[in-house]
Amino acid sequence: VDEALLEGMTLPAVTRYALPLYRELPPALRSDERIKELALRIVGDKPRGWKQIKAVEEYLRNEYIHVRDFKVPEDRDDPVPWFLFDSKTGPDYLFAAAACVLLRQLNYPARVVSGFYVDPADHDPESGQVSVRPDDIHFWTEILLPGDEWVVVEPTPGYEKLPASPDLLGRLALIAAAIGRWLVDNLATVLLAVLAAALVVWQRRRLLAGLYWLRWRLSYGGPWRRRVMSTLRLLEAWAGLEGQRRPVGWTPLRWYERHLRSRVPEAATFFRLIPLAAYSTFPCVLPEEFADRQCKTAVRAFWASRKPGSEEARHD
């Protein structure tokens, strides 16, 4: 029920759109001056329409006590007046009947409806079904609006009306609220995640450099040609993190001579091995220990030039 829209609706004093059936009262109730006075006192000076209907609903919810198993005395043949003026306590069907009588006294078309009021806790998300028990039987009141639309009035305390389906902005607001509640409930986790993300961003180059080195160590092995080319890829990746990528069309040796020699002179022999490893078509016998030593020397020298003071032994 979207009560914000209903509050702006004006209902005609003479309900020509409703069948007389929904405005009729038994003579004893129609002539009971106490019910008339109570109805008028409840609505006060509120304009005709939803504000009066809401006033009747809230009056019953606030001033009367709901007891599901409460019984009307057998010697009373006037359960509604007895409920309104004597007991002020009763089951839901008396709340619904009293609301219907009060609203009809104010010339609103109303009816009592029965059905099931299901607890949301009984919803099974896996099957999409809800268990219905005998105790879920419930009575409420409905008002007929122009256009032949019945709207729920819930006078029984402890029961709530189904809210109106939100529009797009409303759904976005609900999502934002749910996210906000989750953030509050998981504040410590969120703060740790933010700090971890900030640390990753701050140290991203070091982390990437470490990942490149780990990949090199895991793939390092095999013939000396393969180890030389694997080491070259590591050095190119490290240089790329510092904005010193090898230009397209440049050989590794030219790149080294132009940009890296002054920085890592220890790697000169390694870069001279690259043409042999990459382009040589004739058998080239090279001591494996010599190629391995040049590869690791180039790695240690390059890392030391990136982070002065770091422990070179970590790359052995």
Give the helices and strands, then pairings.
Layout: H1 3-7, H2 27-30, H3 33-43, H4 50-63, E1 65-66, H5 79-87, E2 89-90, H6 92-105, E3 110-116, E4 123-124, E5 129-130, E6 137-145, E7 149-153, H7 168-185, H8 187-202, H9 204-219, H10 224-241, H11 252-260, H12 268-279, H13 288-306
Parallel strand pairs: 1-2
Antiparallel strand pairs: 3-6, 4-5, 6-7
What can you see in these coordinates?
This protein is mainly α and 316 residues long. The protein is 52% helix and 9% strand. The chain has helices spanning 3-7, 27-30, 33-43, 50-63, 79-87, 92-105, 168-185, 187-202, 204-219, 224-241, 252-260, 268-279, 288-306, and strands at 65-66, 89-90, 110-116, 123-124, 129-130, 137-145, 149-153. A three-stranded antiparallel beta sheet has the order 3-6-7. Strand 1 (65-66), helix 5 (79-87) and strand 2 (89-90) form a beta-alpha-beta unit. It starts with a helix and ends in a 10-residue tail after the last helix. Residues 308-316 have low confidence and may be disordered.
Task: Name a few traits of the molecule.
316 residues, mainly alpha, three-stranded antiparallel beta sheet, 13 helices, 7 strands, 52% helix, rod-shaped
The sequence of SSEs as H and E is HHHHEHEHEEEEEHHHHHHH
Radius of gyration: 41 Å
Q: Describe the strand arrangement of the main beta sheet, using strand numbers.
A: 3-6-7
List low-confidence stretches: 308-316
The end-to-end distance, rounded to whole angstroms, is 72 Å
Which bin fits the share of residues in helices? 40-55%
Number of helices: 13
How many β-strand stretches? 7
- Estimate the global geometry from the Cα principal axes: rod-shaped
Largest sheet: 3 strands, antiparallel
**Strand portion, in percent?**
5-15%
Mean pLDDT: 85
Q: Output the structural class.
A: mainly alpha
